[in-house]
Amino acid sequence: MKNQPKQYDDDDGRVICDMDVDGMPWHDRRVRREQREAPKVQHPDQMTAAETRAYTGSALLAALVIWAVFAAAWALLILFCTQIWFR
């Protein structure tokens, strides 16, 4: 009687989030074995190495531009304080 799962009225049996996570005691090794035996499929929407380098370079350039704007603002604040405000 205690081992039977509770029956809920609003449960339709759908899985919203798969909780079969590696490292957990209830992890199903059979699923992992089936995934390993399944044929490997290339994902066409996966980025190539050149595209990855281009996106990484663009992200670093954007970060550098933002850093330069903050550095210029800081330098202008220091100049304003020393030349005008504290005079």
Low-pLDDT segments: none
> Which structural class fits the helix and strand makeup?
mainly alpha
Number of strands: 0
User: End-to-end span in angstroms?
Assistant: 86 Å
Principal-axis shape equals: elongated
Helix content: 40-55%
- The number of helical elements comes to 2
User: What is the averaged pLDDT score?
Assistant: 83
Q: What amount of the residues lies in strands?
A: under 5%
> What string, H for helix and E for strand, traces the elements in order?
HH
What's the main sheet like? none
Radius of gyration: 28 Å
Q: Explain this structure to me?
A:
The protein has a domain at 49-87. Helices cover 53% and strands 0% of the residues. The protein has 2 helices and no strands. The protein is elongated, with a radius of gyration of 28 Å. The N and C termini lie far apart (86 Å). The mean pLDDT is 83.
